[in-house]
Amino acid sequence: MTTSPIVDTAALTPFRARLRGPLLLPDADPTAFSESVTIWNGMVKSRPALVVRPSGTADVVECVRFAAERRIPIAPKGGGHNLAGTCLPEHGLTVDFCRLKAVHVDAKKKLAHVQPGALLGDVDRETQLHGLATVLGFVSETGVAGLTLGGGYGYLTRRFGWTSDNLVEAEVVTADARVLTANADENPDLFWAIRGGGGNFGIVTRFTYRLHDVGPQVTGGLIAWPGDRAAAVLAEYAARTPSLPRELTLALTVRLAPPAPFLPQEWHGKLIVLLVVCHTGSEAQATADLAPFRALGNPLVDLVARKPYAVQQSMLDATQPRGPHYYWKSEFLPVLTPAARDAFITHASKPATPLSQLVLFHVGGAIREHAKDDGAVGNRDAEYMFGSAGCWLPDDPNAQANIAAVRGAWEAMRPHSTGGVYVNFLTAEEGEDRVRAAYRDNFERLAALKAKFDPTNLFQSNKNVRPSAG
Prior knowledge:
single chain, alpha+beta, Uridine Diphospho-n-acetylenolpyruvylglucosamine Reductase, domain 3, Vanillyl-alcohol Oxidase, Chain A, domain 3
């Protein structure tokens, strides 16, 4: 049996005996191990020395004890959808929650109790049986754990806040192998930290979310225009979005048209501008709120219609397949000034690859109803999220040029930023300066709490907040 130099066979035998779920090694369990370390972003090359698939919280406690005793890095894996691949600590231990995906809905209390291996689609499937939903992201194969711990946003953010604003309780295994309940009354400082602080403070083994009356039918879809209409569409977007009702969320993207059957074949591979639409109000209200955008006229397609909310939540899945190389840069924006729009159009008009795109998400709304220090997530002054989203196939010989193009667009938009950035969109090479930008005024408090809950920085395979010396 082959092991990492830092994990010997003698240590693994008693560890394995204390577990109920399987312990996987690359040589002894090649198929299962490969499944556990294959993640969404094919650019990530780090690999753990071993994987545990826990059967419950007690296995997680054993994993934390083992990692602390052996002084090896440890990280949880939920959906494996993190851009930086933080679930795969080099020569460390990955706790793969693929066996723990249950979702229990309390429809009377409007709460969902969710295990850490659940994907967004798993949660939506169960909550929509009751016409309920919580704030989740845009791709149904994303894991709820990483999304929530990094703040989280999606189609419902404008109505109900960040995902972490809708977290009401969590069960957390801390670095000293304690199992703590964290909520507004019990361990409130830990509860504050995990609502945006990433995986820095422990491994969460249960999430409890507040649910809202949403669906089962919403108005959603997309509208596409030729790329030469991008400036006009963006100008209308900038003018209208600040006053839109919170039931409507719009994302704008410019990219080369994919070979999708819903787009005219003669436009495949040509530049287009897209509005991605989700309206959770009445059909009549949606029609009225979208009228100014439809008045722009002459779209290539208008696919906005009434549909199940769960279908809307998975609409973009095909645009984010597992395996390609993903390299993104992002910023929060307070407004879309003419200069910002010009910079966006200039770089969006020359995508580096057929799979790359520039994106604007409208945020604002409910996130501003909270104090700026309500949870570590912060960034409550954001009206928009800008993303320079690079994507290419693994055999693309122009990887460095593709990265440069992503960075060029980001550098052009940075002067228009709030100064903040979404921690879940940070890439592997981004260091403490960018982590500080993600947390801004909340960073020092996070570092102090890191010293309290993880003074040795056991949980460092993340966008790391080091324990403060104080």
